[in-house]
Specification:
The chain is elongated. With 111 residues, it is mainly α. The chain has three helices and no strands.
């Protein structure tokens, strides 16, 4: 999950939890608004602190990318696609000839 998405999720969660707390505890609309804003601000700050700590203490190591093995797999899949495409072209030619034959038979013509 990207950092922006996590922060947005926490802000929305804070808003709705503040909305619930505000409706359950207060009768004055301005008190509800202040509770909603404070709860949303709290979750916003909590999200930023948690993302900052995650980035600070998470070790991002380098990943070894095996280019040769990846190229071999891509070549294999490409060759498989070419073989299947050739088979489809053969089948398409066979069925299109059959369609032409059926059209000619409907018109009363035979080969």
């Amino acid at each position: 999950m990207r950092e922006e998405n996590y922060i947005a999720f926490c802000v929305v969660f804070g808003f709705f939890s503040g909305l619930m707390v505000g409706f359950l505890t207060q009768n004055d609309p301005f008190d509800m608004l202040s509770i909603i804003m404070l709860t949303t601000l709290f979750f916003y700050m909590l999200a930023h602190v948690s993302v900052a700590l995650f980035i600070r203490f998470m070790e991002f190591g380098r990943v070894h990318f095996e280019k040769e093995a990846y190229d071999r797999k891509l070549d294999y899949f490409y060759n498989q696609l070419l073989q299947r495409e050739a088979g489809f072209e053969t089948n398409h030619a066979y069925f299109s000839n059959g369609d032409n034959h059926m059209k000619n038979m409907k018109k009363g013509k035979t080969r």
